[in-house]
Design goal:
The chain is α+β, with helices and mostly antiparallel strands. The protein has a domain of about 100 residues: 3-Layer(aba) Sandwich (Rossmann fold), CATH 3.40.50.150. It contains five helices and four strands; from the N terminus they run βαβααβααβ. A four-stranded mixed beta sheet has the order 1-2-4-3.
């Protein structure tokens, strides 16, 4: 039997029943990783599965710089793994290789659409900067072929055994 419950990290989970397996997929960019992993661990009787970014950004830092934007890099799976280790959880890591849906940058229009999808609306200055930069690049090399995710999993650890 499977029963899916979607609950925000910030919400109270005390009313949720414990389950055999807890899953958090593509939702782990949180303000407090330790609290989030602890919540999942406490909900699961047997095992926890989470997915995390492998890369530190959805858009290449070079593209962010070319647009004149501040480079924003996010915590990736290594951060989550280190937090779990500090908690006394010896997690496993597997990798999910997936095709990058934003790999086709063969035209300026397609590239602009891909960048806007990830960074949000571009102003005229950013568009001009990116256009000049794009003209000097090999369009085939602008985005990696895959968008990889790390599947981190562990056997649940009793609350009293956590550090």
């Amino acid at each position: 039997n499977v029963h899916w419950i979607q609950r925000a990290w910030e919400e109270d989970w005390s009313d949720l029943p414990r389950c055999d397996i807890a899953v958090a997929s593509r939702s782990t960019l949180v303000a407090d990783m330790r609290q989030a992993m602890s919540k999942l661990n406490n909900q699961a009787r047997l095992r926890v599965y989470t997915t995390h970014l492998v890369s530190t950004s959805f858009v290449s830092p070079a593209i962010q710089r070319a647009a004149g934007r501040e480079v924003i890099e996010l915590p990736n799976y290594i951060f989550a793994l280190n937090v779990l280790y500090q908690m006394g959880i010896y997690a496993h890591v597997d990798f999910i290789r997936g095709q990058n849906c934003q790999q086709d940058n063969s035209t300026w229009e397609r590239f602009e659409q891909n960048v806007s999808w990830s960074l949000g609306a571009l102003n005229d200055d950013e568009r001009e900067r990116l256009y000049r930069w794009y003209q000097q690049q090999d369009a085939r090399a602008l985005a990696p072929a895959s968008r990889d995710w790390a599947l981190i999993w562990w056997d649940s650890v009793p609350q009293e055994a956590l550090r």
